[in-house]
Amino acid sequence: MLIGAVEAGGTKFVCGIGNESGEILERVSFPTEHPVKTLAQVKEYFKNKQVEAIGIGSFGPINIDRSSAHYGYVTTTPKPGWANYPFLPELAKVLDVPFGWDTDVNAAALGEATWGAARGLSSCLYYTIGTGVGVGVYSEGKLVHGLVHPEGGHILTRRHLEDTYSGKCPYHGDCLEGMAAGPAIEDRWKIKASELPTDHKAWEFEAFYIGQAVASAILLLSPQKIILGGGVMHQMHLFPLIREQVKNNLKGYVSAAEVTDNIESYIVPPGLGDNAGLSGSIALGLQAYQNA
Ligand code: ADP
Ligand code: ZN
């Protein structure tokens, strides 16, 4: 069975085709421009492809409330042309298949739960630490939606005592994203994050903020696995620093061996690597097919 997938990012779109085992059979990628142009490329890509369903994991915020007249819309993004744009309805006009539709990070969480690091578990969190920070929440075997959808990238964190940076989030200044996303690191230190040496203070700060967020998420949601992805997490030396911060914050209060004894296999990189987003969209498409 062929399932279509769209990983709709703020800087680039990836369209692909996979199967029910999560294998990616082909993919293309193009920059995110005005929605009319970008969605025309998506329609063109899928035009003659024999897919049974299409899953879309999108940058947000987006409307995922099926009962809403604006289901499938992008909502409040500052991205030119995309605010209040009917993303899903536009595609559904020409592509007659069931659609899965969720946030990029929820899609990645579902992909990891289906085929990746959280396979076989009924809960996990997927963080992306990249251009922004986002958190996908999979709990009790389902993606969490609720009021809108989780926005765990914008939670408030306590400041590192030596950190005087004002923060880069256009809404909140020094929320988690404002302090820890790639652009915040680069603005604070005036150097590309990928070029910072591993012993730079930047990584202590980074682990401090992510470690707080993850500890709070463990307390709030009790996830069985925490997956940290996105460009910044290509810095593998961050993993031990973050795990240590999480332990320091929890202070033994959460009495699960996953945290106290085996945190190396509890807080992990994506099992699907950089395919987590696209594979997650295949998983969303598969779910849409099964529910149709
Ligand atoms: P996006 O969030 O747009 O999907 P990424 O997850 O790749 O894309 O995030 C891009 C950001 O991640 C860049 O702004 C950069 O600051 C940071 N980044 C990318 N690669 C690295 C790296 N190797 N080390 C540290 N930071 C990186
Ligand atoms: Zn924010």
Q: How many beta strands in the DSSP annotation?
A: 10
Report the span from N to C terminus: 15 Å
**How many DSSP helices?**
9
Stretches where pLDDT falls below 50 for ≥5 residues? none
Bound molecules: adenosine-5'-diphosphate, zinc ion
- Radius of gyration over all CA atoms, rounded: 19 Å
Mean pLDDT: 97
Largest sheet: 5 strands, mixed
CATH topology of the largest domain: Nucleotidyltransferase, domain 5
Summarize the structure in words:
This protein is of the alpha/beta class. Helix content is 34%, strand content 18%. The protein has two domains: 3-107 and 274-291, Nucleotidyltransferase, domain 5; 119-269, ATPase, nucleotide binding domain (Nucleotidyltransferase, domain 5). The strands form two sheets. It has a five-stranded mixed sheet with strand order 3-2-1-4-5. The chain is globular and about 55 Å long. 47% of the residues are buried. Zinc ion is lined by residues 154, 169, 171-172, 175, 177-178. Residues 9-11, 128, 130-131, 182-183, 186, 193-194, 230-232, 234-235 line the site of adenosine-5'-diphosphate.
Please provide a brief summary of the model.
The chain is an alpha/beta fold. Helices cover 34% and strands 18% of the residues. The strands form two sheets. A five-stranded mixed beta sheet has the order 3-2-1-4-5. A five-stranded mixed beta sheet has the order 8-7-6-9-10.
Helix-strand blueprint:
Elements: E1 3-8, E2 12-18, E3 24-31, H1 35-46, E4 53-58, H2 87-94, E5 99-103, H3 104-115, E6 124-129, E7 133-139, E8 142-143, H4 176-180, H5 182-189, H6 201-221, E9 226-229, H7 238-250, H8 257-260, E10 267-268, H9 276-291
Parallel strand pairs: 1-4, 4-5, 6-9, 9-10
Antiparallel strand pairs: 1-2, 2-3, 6-7, 7-8
The chain binds adenosine-5'-diphosphate and zinc ion.
The site of adenosine-5'-diphosphate has 16 residues, from helix 5.
